[in-house]
TrEMBL record:
Pfam families per UniProt: MDD_C, MVD-like_N
Enzyme class: lyase
Membrane-traversing stretches: none
Keyword Coiled coil: no
Protein name: diphosphomevalonate decarboxylase
Domain Mvd1 C-terminal: 179-316
Family label: Belongs to the diphosphomevalonate decarboxylase family.
A GO molecular-function annotation: diphosphomevalonate decarboxylase activity
Organismal lineage: Bacteria, Bacillati, Bacillota, Bacilli, Lactobacillales
EC number(s) per entry: 4.1.1.33
This protein's record includes keyword Lipid metabolism: yes
Length: 332
């Protein structure tokens, strides 16, 4: 027998950053975080549980992946198989509509979609709160991609895995948008996981980062409640820069920035000085994200095109949470 699950999940960009784990095995973060789910970037994933398979098979964009990459998927699938009390192997086909490992949250959408597809294929029918604790075990930020709009990833208590999960905060339907300035969409040389561990181990700024991230989150949730875009943007930009400052304080220092990253940040500040509110944030990669009002996106795009190519400018609206894909809508 075969059992099939298909799911779409969108990426999310953290506005209050997650950078570091207190428990590596369970992917439990050092601080709570908050993100915005994006419409333009997503992953579609199919899981086929097949009694005839002797081992798991993993295809990414129709390319069969190595044993090493497949082993990571197997470890994740086992979380669901153990709960369902089955041993059936799977063929996983995933299609990434977002550059992989470029600091654009491809792992968030990838593991969120995989969690949703496996939840359907196994028939476990886990609720979203519980499912977010499973998605987290593949990639920490994946826990937030289960929901649309603004989403909090609650850090949880101690080493209790079930206590760390995603919480929907607001649907962000009040004129919120984002523009990605794609400086370099190639695979980054230093993974986020390695960068996090190195920063925690060697940066004297790290403890202060965790302390201020907590207060930043409280202030940001209040700004969202008040629909105060200016405060939302200011906290977003400050928090992101502080995260990168902890990396620069590591020994030896870490920097994911490239010359065009600095150029993009300077350009956004120049645009802001003209009276258009817009704010930058960056994850572990060189690409710059611009938080703005959706109604200002066309004006901001036009100004960015003075310094960047059209293909580098990717506007996006707010994305929705995960959804199952029907047979008729599966177009791969």
């Amino acid at each position: 027998m075969t059992h099939i699950g298909r799911c779409r999940a969108h990426t999310n960009i953290a506005l209050i950053k997650y950078w570091g784990k207190r428990n590596e095995e369970l992917f439990l973060p050092m601080n709570s975080s908050l993100s915005l789910t994006l419409e333009a970037f997503y992953t579609d994933t199919e899981v086929v549980l097949d009694d005839n398979l002797d081992s798991d098979i993993f295809y990414l964009d129709d390319i069969k992946q190595s044993d090493k990459e497949t082993a990571k998927i197997t470890q994740f699938l086992n979380l669901f198989r153990d709960l369902a009390n089955i041993k059936t192997r799977a063929c996983v086909k995933s299609y990434n509509h977002v550059p992989t490992a470029a600091g654009l949250a491809s792992s968030a959408s990838a593991f969120s979609a995989l969690a949703g597809a496996m939840n359907q294929a196994t028939g476990l029918d886990l609720d979203l709160k519980t499912l977010s604790t499973f998605a987290r075990r593949g990639s920490g930020s994946a826990t937030r991609s289960l929901y649309g709009g603004f989403v909090e990833w609650y850090m949880g208590e101690g080493d209790e895995s079930d206590s760390s999960h995603a919480i929907p905060v607001d649907d962000a339907s009040w004129d919120i948008g984002m523009i990605v300035i794609a400086v370099n969409t190639g695979r980054k040389k230093l993974s986020s996981r390695v960068g996090m561990k190195h920063t925690i181990a060697t940066s004297p700024f790290y403890s202060s980062w965790v302390e201020t991230a907590t207060s930043d989150l409280t202030k940001m949730k209040d700004a969202i409640k008040q629909k105060d875009f200016i405060t939302l943007g200011e906290i977003t930009e400050s928090n992101g820069m502080k995260m990168h400052a902890t990396m620069l304080g590591a020994f030896p220092p870490i920097s994911y920035w490239e010359p065009d990253s600095v150029k993009a940040i300077s350009k956004v500040k120049e645009i802001r000085e003209t009276g258009i509110p817009c704010y930058v944030t960056m994850d572990a990669g060189p690409n710059v994200k611009v938080l703005c009002r959706q109604s200002d996106m066309d004006k901001i795009e036009a100004l960015l095109l003075e310094d960047f190519n059209r293909e580098q400018i990717i506007p996006t609206q707010v994305g929705e949470g995960i959804k199952l894909i029907s047979d008729s809508d599966w177009n791969y």
